[in-house]
Structure prediction request, 177 residues.
Amino acid sequence: MKFLTDFRLLLLAIWLGAALFFIAVAQSAFAVVPERELAGAVVNRTLSILNFTGLGISAVLLVTSLATARGTKRYWVWMERILLFIVLAACAVGQFVIGLWLGMVRVQMGRPIDQVAADDPLRIQFDNLHEWSVWVLMTGMGAALIAFFIIANRKFGAVTIKSDPTAPYDFSKEFKI
Prediction:
């Protein structure tokens, strides 16, 4: 069971690391690439990869949570599953709902986003969708981080400490409440 838990933690850590790296890539792309339209294409492609891996990893983690649930408290098992479902939902909504809406708005604009006035209704809609995209990704990342700590703190059986009644420094009897 410990190996499966370590594998699950590794998958979750890989996705969280990729999500943090994506933030750096997005900021760097807009700072380095001369055309914002090209930088947006890089960020869009990278976000798609992040969302699809998030879908796959959270699905695998949800399925494997069925095997690791024995011997742990039900509350923490269900909390982990709910958080992993939030990661899955955030990736799905980010990719298949918000991503598609952003694409449709960009097609309706018919020109690069920088050439659209800030008070144009399509530009306002694009900015609002972009903000929703950021919040959905941050929600998925937060849920993944909390699930990581829940999985990492799982106990694998009771630890029994045998006390020696003749030991001179046995305080177990004196401090019982």
Summary: The mean pLDDT is 89. The chain has one domain: 2-152.
